[in-house]
Amino acid sequence: MIEKKPTTCVLDGDIIAYKAAYWAETEGIEYLPSRIEHDIKTWTPTDCDKVYIALSCDRNNNFRRKVWDPYKRHRDSSAHVPPDCLSYAIELVSATNCLRYSNIEADDIMGMMASNYEAIAVTIDKDLRSVRGWHWNPMKEEQSILLDARTAEYNFHSQWLSGDTTDNVPGIWRCGPAKAAKILGSTAPENWTNAVLATYELALDVNGCNYGYDYAVKMAQCVRILRAGEYDSVSSSPNLWLPTL
Asked: Residue 129 in contact with residue 72, Cβ under 8 Å?
């Protein structure tokens, strides 16, 4: 069954704000409102009549920090100083149908809305391709595409193995996308989770030590973007994913 393309979209407000803030450092902060307005318009699919902007919670409150404390911790260093007008850019972005929830990221909001085919997730971040649904990368694609559940699960399991250096999630030492592809390619999709857990059990870290089950689950919970029904708005907390064995 091909899901009907929604006429609602949800944009990655984090990236829009960051890109515009860096641009304003050289072009002038006075032009920031018009730049953000332009970017939102450019990122909105032509067939969408409802636009939402997703923004992340404060990094220190991200639930992934409780799962894996080093998560994005490297971005707190002096080497990753954000642009001076970032807070102003976020303020401007949040003025347009903003969605921002406690303890979760913009990726999670987009993932929840895309996974039940409620909205087209618009971002240049490839991590969203681990969630089924409608997606659009306005920098690379002419139109939105429908990502099936099997491809999305493959992408999730691949990243679970290789980790995400951008977010300081190590995964398995020396296991990149190519090695992950060999592991998953030789396994039936219904057994991908068991294959990944078995790989973690047998692999050794940089110090020659075993990873263990708990570490493997933490890696999964860090890289896995939330889907519909996995966030409790009452307690403002996610329902953490666990392997079904």
From this structure: no
Domains contained in the chain, CATH given: 8-147 (3.40.50.1010), 149-223 (1.10.150)
Burial label, 175 (beta-carbon count in 10 A; 0-12, 13-18, 19+): buried
Distance CA 202, CA 104 (A): 32
**Backbone φ, ψ for residue 21 (5° rounding):** -65, -40
210 pairs with which residues across the strands?
A: 204
Predicted local distance difference test score (pLDDT) of residue 143: 95
Per-residue pLDDT tens for 118-156?
Answer: 999 999 999 999 999 999 999 999 999 999 999 999 999
> Count of CB atoms within 10 A of residue 89's CB?
26
Predicted TM-score of the model (pTM) = 0.96
Residue 73 in 3-state DSSP? helix
User: Contact at 8 Å (CB) between 21 and 39?
Assistant: no
**pLDDT for 71-98, tens place per residue?**
999 988 767 789 999 999 999 999 999 9
φ, ψ of residue 54 in degrees (nearest 5): -95, 135
Query: Contact 100/57 with Cβ under 8 angstroms?
Result: yes
The CA distance from 131 to 232, in Å, is 19
* DSSP class of 83: P
